[in-house]
Amino acid sequence: MKKHNFSAGPCILPEEVLQKASEAIINFNDDNLSLLEISHRSKPFVAVIENARSLALELLGLENKGYKALFLQGGASNQFLMTAYNLLNKKAAYLNTGTWSSKAIKEAKLFGELVEVASSEDKNFNYIPKGYEIPTDVDYFHCTSNNTIYGSQMKSFPETNVPLICDMSSDIFSRQLDFSKFDLIYAGAQKNMGPAGTTLVIVKEDVLGKVTREIPSMLNYQTFIDKDSMFNTPPVFAVYTSMLTLEWLKDLGGIEFIEKVNNQKSALLYSEIDRNPLFKGAVVKEDRSHMNATFSLTDNNLKETFNTLWKEANINGLDGHRSVGGYRASMYNALPLYSVQALVDVMQELERKA
Asked: Angle 337-353/254-275 helices, nearest 10 degrees?
């Protein structure tokens, strides 16, 4: 029996996606060749990457609006550098809500002046700052929509006249937003879309070409736009599996459908965390993530018993991040509701045993 997989990443993937991807490794497109063996320039794979790029724009409602979808390498961590390389001319504004935004700030400082408009570090990143002002003289504003490690999530985004850049690695395609507010979105596939190895970048083309520096080819968004994400050999398996996941999501009913499911899952778990006296949430309620629920025991003496119970219940990946501790239940799109119920059942069993 497959485990209930709450791993924060690489993420759980739909069963049908895993099945199709495994078949393609043996025999792709009925050509008696493995997906891993075919030329990335061949018509069958070109069709894959074109479909994946098209689906990404379609699901986000950004078709025919001046956006390009790119599948790149290097993970979201490379985008911390790449966004600044391409967009930061003199000064940029950043919202600091956790580890990943802190790392993005560190990289951007190599290219110009940084304004940290607000930070939640004072309370170990357990909330999203509100009421901050974004300077009007910056090249862009950067934020992280969902904080995988700490379990907080931006529920709204600021109105600003400067380009809006967002790292959506751990909640892309999970909820409805006006994605046209953003000038650039990036997301490592392994959090909510596919296996590790590729990163989706959605960029509005007219935001590019404004920096004065010369950009190396492999770090220039325009390079990959001009070559349809095929400037060099793309990660074919990661792109193919991401395409399958996007097809799966579209067939379900798209983001509108999956958001309702995600809301059910998070409501079920957070209700138990708040009801059960043996548990407490790590993040203020209004900023809790629907993707990554972080919580801890109120009595650490119960840790060994709880750990034994959830492992015996065939649950995987519940340990909190090493820098935070406690527990983290990642409820990405492909995690079924019954897996969350299995976790809730274990939490209630602990209560009965305590």
From this structure: 0
Q: Which residues are catalytic?
A: 100, 167, 191
Residue 316 DSSP one-character state: E
10 Å CB burial of residue 26 (0-12, 13-18, 19+) is exposed
pLDDT, tens digit, 9 for 90 and up, residues 286-323: 999 999 999 999 999 999 999 999 999 999 999 999 88
Contacts of 112-120 spanning 24+ positions with Cβ under 8 A: 112/84, 112/88, 112/139, 115/91, 117/93, 117/141, 119/95, 120/96, 120/152
CA distance 26 to 33: 7
**313: part of which helix (H) or strand (E)?**
none
Q: Strand (E) positions, 61-163?
A: 67-72, 91-96, 113-119, 141-144, 146-147, 152-153
3-class SS of residue 267: helix
Q: What is the pLDDT of residues 48-98, one digit of tens each?
A: 999 999 999 999 999 999 999 999 999 999 999 999 999 999 999 999 999
DSSP 53-68: HHHHHHHTT-TTTTEE
pTM: 0.96
